[in-house]
Design goal:
Length: about 160
């Protein structure tokens, strides 16, 4: 199913990556890898994964690049609309999800988070998308400015 409105939004949007966060693996509590920390990224080679491309249109490209550095192509079986739905899919057994460290704060019964290990640090870009037309509005412009300042201070 194609989301033409999403494709249009991404084509007409601006993106600003402010900072990076450590990536974490979200997996069901009963999964065999739940007892390991860190989990080598290479062990996800045969695992079904839940993607977040609907939330962040650059996610699949980022995940593909991270996995290719470890010698494999990820097997994304389902794309989630957001962090909560991705964690719900993980809890239901659809697959594992590679998420940013701040997602650990989302309540997700039955899901555990583990550090990921790889040849190079697995860090996810964090940022925002917005319509250039909307950014001219006072509130949107102020939000973008405050977000940029907060991320710069955290870096």
């Amino acid at each position: 199913m194609k989301f033409r409105h999403l494709e249009y939004f991404v084509a007409a949007a601006e993106e600003l990556n402010y900072t990076h966060a450590a990536a974490r693996l979200a997996l069901p509590q009963a999964h065999p890898l739940a007892g390991r920390s860190p989990v080598p990224l290479s062990l996800l080679r045969e695992e079904p994964l839940v993607g977040l491309n609907r939330l962040c249109p650059t996610y699949n490209a980022w995940l593909l690049a991270a996995c290719r550095r470890e010698g494999f192509v990820p097997h994304v079986v389902k794309d989630a609309d957001g962090a909560s739905s991705a964690l719900a899919f993980v809890a239901a057994g659809f697959g594992l999800a590679v998420v940013s460290q701040p997602v650990e704060r989302v309540a997700a019964p039955g899901v555990v988070f583990r550090e990921l290990a790889s040849r190079t640090p697995v860090r996810m870009p964090l940022g925002a998308f917005w319509s250039p037309a909307a950014a001219s509005a006072g509130v949107a412009a102020r939000f973008v400015t405050v977000l940029a300042e907060a991320c710069a201070a955290a870096a």
